[in-house]
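Forum: Protein Structure Q&A
Topic: Joint prediction for protein chains with partners

I've read a bunch of threads here and the consensus seems to be that you should model interacting components together rather than docking separate models afterwards. I'd like to see that in practice. Below is the full input, 909 residues plus whatever partners are listed. Could one of the regulars post the assembled result?
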Amino acid sequence: MNTVAMKVFNLPDLGEGLPDAEIVRWLVKEGDTVALDQPMVEMETAKAVVEVPSPYKGVITKLCGAEGDVIDVGAVLVEFDGDGSSASIDASEASTPTESDQQTIPATQPQTASVSQPQMITVTGDVFKLPDLGEGLPDAEIVRWLVAEGDVLALDQPMVEMETAKAVVEVPSPFAAKVAKLHGQAGDVIEVGALLVSFGDSEAVETKTASVEQETPVENKPVDAATVVGAVQVGNKVVVESASAVIKALAKKLKVDLSQVSGSGIDGAIIQADVKQAKKDGKLIGTKTAASVAPPINSQPSSDENPLDFKASPAVRAHAHRLNVALSQCAASGKKGSITKSDVDAAASSSSPTTAPKPVSVASGGLPSVQVSVEPQTVRGVRRAMAMGMAKAHATVVPTTLVEDADITNWPKQDSLARYVRALVFASKIEPALNCWFDGEKYERLIHPNVHVGIAIDSPDGLYVPVIHDADRKDATQVRARVQDLRQKIESKGLKQEDQQGATITLSNFGSIAGRYGSPVVSPPQVAILGTGRFRSELKLTNKGIENRKMLPLSLTFDHRACTGGEAARFLAAIIEDLQKAV
Amino acid sequence: MAAITLIEAVNMAISHEMGVDKEVVVFGEDVGINGGVFRATDGLQEKYGEERVIDTPLAEAMIAGVAIGMAAQGMKPIAEIQFMGFIFPAADHIISHCARMRNRTRGRLTLPMVIRAPFGGGIHAPENHSESTEAIFAHIPGLKVVIPSNPSRAYGLMLAAIRDPDPVIFLEPKRVYRIEKHEIEDNGEDYPLGMCFVDREGTDITLVSWGAMLHETKQAAEKLADMGISAEVIDVATVSPLDIDTILESVEKTGRICIVQEAPKAGALGSEIAAEVAEKSLMSLLAPIGRVSGYDIVIPYYRLEKQYMPKVEYIIDEVKRLVEYK
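Posted by a regular:
Agreed with the consensus. Here's the joint model:
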């Protein structure tokens, strides 16, 4: 692509669109015979040192420049022995690019063609020449045309994908016009400045290679070619800066109270200088006189509840949502006035659902109609599990309940629950048939050597029956520790699946609340459950006379499919025997 | 007053400060004769001479080291790293010395220097030209990390960065270098560093972003408004030190937050913002903290790059999820 006249070598563009290069070192002398492609000179551009090879085979007659000289691209560098005439060409023409195109890339930046090669093209209509797509690279390859000849393009519509050594770039149309001709096919390498697309109808006669000729004084520096790596999106839309955002940020940084600042900008707008002045004047946040302070916002909860009026963690919000409790109905006992889970629980137990259910009018005979609120709750989680478990028990188990009292007058002050567990263990050793699992379909029973006692625990969520595993190997302290542990897990919703599995017999201590006898429900595959009622004092006729005794009511339900009445009665007797021991 | 692009605003700010402060010098690869690969320093060498606008060899470690030396002796260097992907040879100087000098000398020496670097993807660039690694420097105490999102902020924040007594990493979102123009008066008025800018006020959700992604974020806010969702938009601008108070105030007002960033998700700045919100504004959250991010992969080349970049629709989808969250 060098402008090479016969036997004259002009400095070519060394590959970067730079306007000149410096001679570092001559590798040949005048009079030397050089071969084709033999290195003649080392030239340094702003980017690199490049060896320049000879385009001819022949004898060098003149080296045009000394080491250290800066040579313009296009200027004569070497003359060769030719037909006797050391013809030199008009280097100045090539050295100063004068051709400038305005409609190059949509940067609407002034854009010069590459300095390497003036292209003399005359076409009808508007033309588009390949602009410098990046870092002054000399050419680019057509990857794919995105338009066809005859297409009518919109301004900025992508026309072609071009690949440079650095990137693939979509080249947009600089005109809203019809494509007359595409100059090149996919795979062709197009030099910067070469014709890429012609626009216009065939009848167009106007010749317009460039809309605006630009005077570009090219000295040591190329005109801004908007060189970039890659394709930076370009827009000419003028956007207004959000000045108030800047003013507020500055006021915040300087702790200036903007409501005390008067603006000196256009239309009284506050400008940065006003804020800085206010800082000097001490118009800081919190310095307003009491009279001018706005009254506090009414803290009355509105009927149209804004959730952000209340501080609560997401978990508490979810909990309130589940229990259908409005946060406005909750106390805020937590840190910094936040609502805690217990606040929600308290509100849930003390009030009816507060997210107003639809009122339903019920007319009842001659009485005036009343407004009642009806909204069924879906039963979920533990409560649903209870419902399903009980239904299954009712459908399969054949329950029989025995009741009797144990005399616990001699008990020291102690935790009764541990005693009940001990009694179950004791009875299971005497009569193992009740510490058993029963499969009613296969008619199999499994008598357990160990005793895993399920403990029925009531909670707001429903009934839990966690298990004291290996109760036969635990002493009272360990049992108490395990029960404590289970209660905490229920409280914190940390009860695991394994905490609730494997019970071989169950204890229901309903007497801690109320109830003398009951008919507790056996949970299959277990075959027995012991209910302990509320103690009572009773006058008993003993051989010492009438005595005041402390009695513990017991209710033992067993599955009569799996156990005989005798087994159950012996079991209950064993329980009583153990319970009636003093220690 | 001219309507100029972000890159021209960078140029205007540097030129302004060079005009009023003789200590300000500019150097880096191709910044002088060439005027910078993106034209950030175009015309500066002609205006202020080769002694103040200096072309360096291709040696980032040297560029950072020279800047530190100049700044330690009272000059105000503005060093350009041509692309942020090439900042890592300089990272030892920046992290081990630049960030620590004030601390090391107990305040005797501060480094009033700026390191500029274009960063971010979306321009079809080759390898190591498209990353968003702002979190690496935001993690380093002693550095300020500033990212302008529009021409006015580039001008105001660049002036503030040059005038700041401590080192500022000034990251320029190159995808939006020329995407829009602002009318800017070259009056030398800087913008506050260390502050977020609340660009749009809203009541339903807080959208937090910085740099180029602010453009997608604002477009999303527009479209959300059409859907009846009122989004507040915050331009973080100074990503370190983070003005978390402005973000928390907004979250406590809206109850929801979605962070939009171009960087990969893991260990990014969005993670830090999310953690701060969870720590300090938990009681106001009505929904999980949302993030729209790049992916945890090397940002792809041209053909797949578009797949990587967070899009307006992603932001809208995430906001809808958060607003509808029960």
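The two ends of chain A are 112 Å apart (CA to CA).
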